[in-house]
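[job 4471] stage=fold_predict status=RUNNING
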Amino acid sequence: MSRQYFVTGGAGFIGSNFVYRLLERGEKVTVYDNLSRAGAPRNLKWLQEKFGEKAFSLVVGDVRDAAQLTVSAREADIIVHLAGQVAVTTSVVKPREDFEINALGTFNVLEAARLNERNPIFLYSSTNKVYGGMEDVHVVETDSRWQYENLPFGAPETQPLDFHSPYGCSKGAGDQYVRDYARIYDLRSVVLRQSCIYGPRQFGVEDQGWVAWMAIAAVTGRQISIYGDGKQIRDLLHVYDLIDAYEAVIKNIDQVKGEVFNLGGGPENTMSIWTEFGPRLEKLLGKPIPVVRGDWRPGDQKVFVADIRKAEKMLGWKPQYDVEKGVAQLFDWVNKNRNLF
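[job 4471] inference complete, writing structure tokens
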């Protein structure tokens, strides 16, 4: 029997890729999105052109609207909550808006799930920012990167939470509510603390989606700014691998409900944001790329690498896209679609 998927932020970068996967195999999908992000109308149009306007239901709605959410999600069997305010910098400038979207918005989606009589599966897109600056973890500097001194597999789910920045606080509040709804209400919920996700359909901007933003800027000749020393390390996870993880969670929900998973590229898929990524991007572009430099930004971790062994063990999941293959694919998508930027 076909199940009804309800995807908040379904016209966003991750959401549209996930909805595409679902529609491709004939699933019933409702997209719930306020279409406020610049790329959302373009992603929506892409889905409609690929599958037809009647292939899925669209609710133009905001997660801050609890009543509309509750009505819209009442037939859902699987709720995937991807909608949110996504930039640390924006959260610093507009902390109330960030709180209302991420903390209160997640609470609203959870309540819609709790009031849904179908006992839906609930996936929450959290972030590595819930771990804050990880000042308790010693890092060392090399010629091209920062790296953990004593965490060869990366940061585990047991790393102490430290909600640094309003964004970290709002996403972290949602993270903990999702965990607790599994305990208190027996909701079949799972928290996914995501690292640096990248891939096609990502209309990155300077404040969020840095891999895509730098590729877009390089191709279109826009200014690239590097904050800090450019040696900050991130583990990169391709969006298709992330979707594979979502599907593995849904498949194994009886075994993993109430769990928290770090989802990233892991130690094998790390890259510094400019000292290593810059030369790779220049090679793909075929010419040098000038950059301007700026100070470190609040909440910017020198290193974040996710320890993904728990997800590998409990979900039978592992990233399939290495950094070289994934970045080349993203660059090719940007190059072929430069008219969209």
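[job 4471] summary: DSSP finds twelve helices and 15 strands in the chain.
[job 4471] exit 0
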